[in-house]
Design a protein that fits this description.
With about 270 residues, the chain is of the alpha/beta class. It has 12 helices and 7 strands. A 3-stranded parallel β-sheet has the order 1-2-5. Strands 3-4 form a two-stranded antiparallel ribbon. Strands 6-7 form a two-stranded antiparallel sheet. α4 packs parallel to α9. The longest helix is centred in the middle third of the chain and has 21 residues. The chain starts with 11 loop residues before the first strand and ends with a helix.
């Protein structure tokens, strides 16, 4: 379309859609003429909370999540909350998992806010969702701009807490799980792993898993018993490069990096969730 419509490098492309659409168009605009300005307008709670403000544009290849892609920040992002009214209940809830993720990693007061307003979020109160979207987007953006590693040249990737399993679950379910649902299950697995590794108190993990369930998100799926799920750990290491680095939790707002995660620990976590 960029070629057919003779867009030049000084043109601007406006993309309106969910995260996969934003990524696909962002990938195209980053390649055409070696870069055309992109304005993102997210239409889902998930993309508004998270990927809309990210610097990544990735597409799936070889059965792997985001195997092909680029780092290319958008020119601007417009979060128009009226677009969220078009979502069905499933996709309305889906983005809350990314908000809970960033709250667990970075902001205990934000976690408390989501917990206190879980019923309002399920009931689709727009003002409450607006607060969740805005806070989540700001926390993600702050990490990218102030975290010291916007293009992921280092080994740690804290914004991907719960994602090694999430990415593999999407593939194993043939993408019947939404990304947000897969992240919710991935969070539950890594919360349990954090407890088994003796970093996190069981009560805190149970509290977080209860919140995921309270906002209508899954914390288990038949696919978590598939032995191929464990391949997600090595695929995650390969995607980032270097030594395996996974984020676990010591408490809400206090992450810790680990550099190994045995199959036995993951299987114990899964058995407890099942």
């Amino acid at each position: 379309a960029i070629n057919n419509n003779k867009l030049c490098r000084k043109s601007c492309v406006l993309v309106i859609g969910g995260g996969a659409v934003l990524d696909a168009v962002g990938y195209a605009t980053s390649l055409a003429h070696r870069g055309i300005n992109l304005i993102r307008m997210p239409t889902t709670t998930l993309s508004a909370c998270d990927s809309g403000v990210a610097v990544k544009n990735g597409i799936n290849r070889f059965g792997k999540k985001n195997f092909v892609g680029v780092f290319d920040p958008p020119y601007a992002v417009v979060n128009d909350l009226s677009l969220l009214s078009t979502l069905d209940d499933r996709h309305w809830r889906s983005g809350i998992s990314e908000a809970i993720k960033v709250a667990l990693v970075k902001d205990e007061p934000f976690f408390n806010y989501i917990e206190s307003n879980a019923e309002e979020l399920v009931d689709r109160e727009v003002e409450t969702m607006a607060n969740v979207v805005a806070t989540s987007a700001k926390l993600h953006l702050r990490h990218i701009t102030e975290g010291g590693d916007p293009f992921e040249r280092l080994e740690a990737r804290p914004l991907d807490f719960g994602h090694w399993a999430a990415h593999k679950l999407e593939q194993l379910t043939n993408y019947e799980l939404t990304h947000g649902e897969a992240v919710s299950i991935g969070l539950a697995i890594d919360l349990k792993c954090s407890v088994i590794l003796e970093h996190l108190d069981e009560a805190v993990a149970s509290r977080a898993i209860t919140l995921l369930q309270a906002v209508g998100l899954p914390t288990s799926n038949l696919a978590i018993k598939d032995p191929a799920l464990l391949d997600g750990i090595e695929e995650f290491r390969e995607h980032l490069g270097g030594e395996l680095t996974l984020l676990m939790l010591k408490s809400i707002g206090q992450p810790i990096d680990v550099h190994s995660l045995s199959n036995e620990i993951v299987q114990q976590a899964i058995s407890e969730l099942v």
